[in-house]
Design brief:
This protein is an alpha+beta fold. The longest helix is centred in the last third of the chain and has 22 residues, at 426-447.
Length: 629
């Protein structure tokens, strides 16, 4: 029986208490190989994609006790544990890395020994490391006909190892609109409809890719199915529609709400892949949104992205061609907008059938496991109904996008990506954060059959202000930024896994992937104190009291970061006999704390960082308050 039970939009434990799940993503560097060093700044061996090993990701086994003990001490007892398709099946189709699967079992088992529960996240960003992200093996691109060594040169993706340092902030996300990743997502989700001439071993490219992805994930399920603390599986991290639904290939893809850097149209991207140079518009992201900055000529050397003897998929299917003047023209501008005269909808027609298939296949091995599902980032159009896989959890992501992209926190300005608007003023910014996360919760309730919500990714970059804190030791801006996010999560009373905890994070190279640096921990911040808090970043904001198990329905929670005063109110459930359990971090109360309750009795165990509160039945609503002694 799964130790987490779903009841309406709440998580419950076996005693009937409402669970509040708090944890981290482990880890940012799990996206890249451990051997050879796959940090994205390192070009050496980058294209030797079949001869890699992810043994050691997310952490070396001999360091597991240290990191799991620290996470448990920090109150982060629920992990979103990252794996990648590439880690399992990098050597070729159907060739599984047994050493990695053996390692994975050992490190996941170790988490349970420290009282930590987790769910497995088959992670990908913009398809693959070879399209500027992570996830899918390199052979999937070769299967489609791509020459990996030509992807960057043809403008089909911007790659850190090819571009070099400094790598533009968050530019990697624009790869989902470019030829390589957009093509692969289109083939993966809808290849049978949009590339019917492309088959592998007698089946559509869509079926071939999906079945290999699912079978790779099933290797993990087979290894972990008897570990009770492994409570579920995500279907796919941050899916993308690729070209699916694009109404006109002569325009830029609408997969991103904003433009950054080189922004070719879909047609221009296809022409660039064919070796035809193009002048493309360039954009910069500012407080008022994307603004044009000029034009840049791409693929000036006329490189061709397709392997020798392989056809351009989209030219083969009549989407575009070259006219008598040698210029690319769209033959079917609306090719990706409809199938057999019916307008396509990515979520309805492609993503949901895929996610349900993943759920069914995983549960054929582990019937009681939970399924975590997320739609296209920053879009609220995912639906999940009674006919879809049961016991699903909405695991959408949320970030303060202005801070994420600018790497500076402005408490007076924010950008609401879902509603595409700038928010100004300290009060409106805080309210906007609450409302944006609240929209995700409301989507779960209204569009997803009342599914529980867990924010699968949320966090801040720590390399703010040009990494100033790493020199001065002053992390006050990071504390303010993280507190604003944590407060918004608390006001919505939502479970979450912070992005992220990276054991091998460094100040110089961050999380080892595309210059991101969002880890709560870095050995470069260690002072030699010998405590589990050593190496933590912005812990004043990250480590805060919270009700982990509630004997009823949570009503309100607040934590004042300046005074360290915590207040919590809930309505009790008469069928629950177990006490409410509150995490009380020593970090916030080094000299102890005072506790006040509205009724009943409590036991405070500071060494165990736990407050057990036993309410009375004389009143329905109960309040507890914690303040420094």
């Amino acid at each position: 029986m799964n130790p987490i039970i779903l009841n309406g939009h709440h998580f419950k434990d076996r005693s009937g208490r409402t669970l509040v799940l708090r944890g981290v993503n482990l880890s940012g560097s799990a996206k890249v190989p451990f051997h050879p060093d796959g940090a994205t700044w390192n070009r050496a061996g980058f294209y030797d994609h079949r001869d890699v090993s992810f043994v050691g990701r997310p952490l070396p086994l001999d360091e597991a006790d240290e990191h799991f003990e620290r996470l448990h001490s920090w109150g982060f007892t629920f992990l979103r544990f990252l794996i990648t398709w590439e880690a399992i099946e990098h050597a070729g189709p159907g060739i599984y890395d047994e050493a990695y699967l053996d390692y994975l079992y050992q490190v996941v088992k170790k988490a349970g020994e420290h009282g930590i529960q987790l769910f497995i996240d088959p992670h990908e960003d913009v398809w693959s490391r070879f399209t500027g992200g992570d996830g899918a093996p390199g052979w999937t691109l070769e299967l489609a006909g791509f020459d990996l060594t030509k992807i960057h040169a043809t403008g089909a993706a911007i790659l850190h190892p090819e571009h070099g340092d400094p790598f533009p902030r968050m530019i990697w996300a624009t790869n989902q609109t470019k030829l390589a990743a957009a093509t692969m997502f289109t083939l993966f989700f809808a290849g049978a409809d949009f590339a019917p001439q492309l088959t592998v071993d007698g089946v559509s490219i869509q079926e071939y890719l999906q079945s290999h992805y699912i079978n790779a994930v099933k290797q993990v399920v087979l290894r972990l199915k008897d570990l009770e603390h492994v409570v579920g599986y995500d279907t796919l991290n941050e899916p993308s529609a690729g070209y699916i639904g694009s109404k006109d290939v002569r325009k830029r893809s609408l997969s991103l709400p904003v433009d950054m850097g080189d922004s070719p149209t879909i047609l221009q991207g296809m022409a660039l892949g064919a070796g035809i140079s193009q002048w493309v518009p360039t954009y910069a992201l500012t407080l008022v949104g994307s603004i044009p900055t000029g034009w840049r000529k791409l693929n000036t050397r006329g490189e061709r992205i397709w392997l020798p003897g392989r056809e351009d998929i989209w030219r083969q299917h009549g989407v575009w061609d070259v006219n008598a003047a040698g210029k690319p023209v769209a033959l079917k501008p609306g090719y990706f907008a409809e199938v057999n005269g019916r307008a396509v909808d990515f979520n309805r027609d492609y993503f949901k059938p895929f996610a349900n298939r993943v759920a069914h296949e995983i549960r054929s091995i582990d019937p009681d496991t939970l399924i975590f599902v997320e739609g296209v980032p920053s879009q609220g159009d995912l639906t999940w109904g009674p006919s879809d896989a049961p016991d699903a959890i909405h695991a959408a992501h949320w970030y303060d996008d202005l801070t994420l992209v600018s790497k500076s926190f402005h408490n007076w300005a924010a950008y609401d990506t879902r509603n595409v608007r700038l928010v100004l003023g300290a009060g409106p910014v805080r309210r906007s954060f609450v409302n944006q996360i609240g929209e995700i919760v409301r989507q779960s309730e209204r569009q997803m059959n009342g599914a529980p919500t867990l924010i699968g990714e949320v966090g801040i970059p720590f390399d703010l202000q040009g990494k100033k804190a790493y020199t001065t030791g002053d992390f006050s801006m990071q504390v303010r930024a993280l507190d604003a996010t944590m407060t918004a999560l608390e006001k919505n009373f939502v479970s979450f896994t912070l992005w992220n905890y990276t054991p091998d994070n460094t100040n110089a190279r961050g999380d080892l992937w595309n210059d991101e640096d969002l880890s709560l921990f870095s050995r470069d911040q260690m002072t030699g104190s010998g405590t589990l808090d050593d190496g933590g970043r912005a812990l004043k904001a990250a480590l805060r009291p919270y009700p982990h198990r509630v004997a009823g329905e949570p009503l309100s929670i607040s934590f004042d970061i300046l005074t360290a005063v915590f207040e919590f109110t809930f309505r009790h459930d008469e069928t629950v006999a177990a006490p409410t359990e509150i995490y009380v971090p020593r970090y916030q109360y080094p000299r102890g704390c005072a506790v006040e309750v509205s009724d009943g009795a409590f036991d405070l165990d500071l060494p165990a960082q736990t407050l057990l509160y036993r309410h009375t039945s004389d009143r329905s609503i109960h309040t507890s308050r914690i303040r420094p002694a």
